[in-house]
């Protein structure tokens, strides 16, 4: 039974339960109905005799004969009356039996041809004139035997109908009960295979419906968690790829000055040519070491960008924050005699962590100051959905823009000579991606513009 499927198991449980109930009812009817019926007949005869006794008490003994005769005919019984030594029988049945006992009884007359069951009741009654009358009432219990015969005749048919009903009801009930469970089995199998469209179509509001609804909610949360993990996985792969590219670029970037420094030191070591003047070229070697130290510091700071923890975003007023960053570059701006126009509205706000905002705009303003020609112009402005910085310079070509976000990328030797390390826009891109902002770097008339969409 434990290995049996749910539908046949439910069917058999229901069928045997109904079969037990119907069998018990049939047995109860067969065995108890005759006894109950006979008991009711005796009670009814007893009540009729009580009524007869009251009527006799209102009449004299001489007038009781007609009353007994009417009683016998009306109730289809034989009434034997014994009074003052005489005995008279009033016939209401078509046969008579002589008994030798005064006790009430019920017995089967098996020695008679009709073999009827007999009910006998004895009672002493008193007439109006005080004379006592012994009354014996004999009634037929044939209706009980007829009822038993009818039950015996119908029992096979009713029992067969009950079995058929049990089979049909068990089938329909089992089908109704197991159908949602089979539906759950099919749907959960789809859920096991992570099919996005898998879901229960809940129609009922009972416990099965609530269970299906809860499974739907759990599966939706599971899919959401899986999607989140996939996104996180793709993000981590992208970060790892970005780190790999960055490290390769950093290695290449460090390799060139290290090679130059090695050659310089070897020439000084072997007193080759002009390098005999060690004091002069020792200072140059120290400058190269300082250059390498600065480059390593920039590389380390840039590598930390990808590992920055998610900081709480806050409402920032762009004008005030950018104004503070401009103050840091006030000396360079004055040295190059640049014209800076800051036209950001006072109510221009955005949600971003303050640390990220300062890093982004420090790099953007630093690049603009560094690559704007002497006496050039820098414009910072904003409207309802974007904020931008624009500087006058030679616009970049499409080919140059394709690599502009690569770490250590420099457009030409002129820009490299200006002191840039090629990491500014790479840092800006990584930070804006982490914060979820869209951006674009594009050429405009006589310059370049970097736009951040709010």
From TrEMBL:
GO BP terms: cellular response to phosphate starvation
EC code: 2.7.13.3
Coiled-coil region: 35-62
Top enzyme category: transferase
Gene3D superfamilies associated with the record: 1.10.287.130, 6.10.340.10, Histidine kinase-like ATPase, C-terminal domain
HAMP domain residues: 175-227
Localisation: Membrane
Cross-referenced PANTHER family: HISTIDINE KINASE, PHOSPHATE REGULON SENSOR PROTEIN PHOR
Record protein name field: histidine kinase
Organism the protein comes from: Roseburia inulinivorans
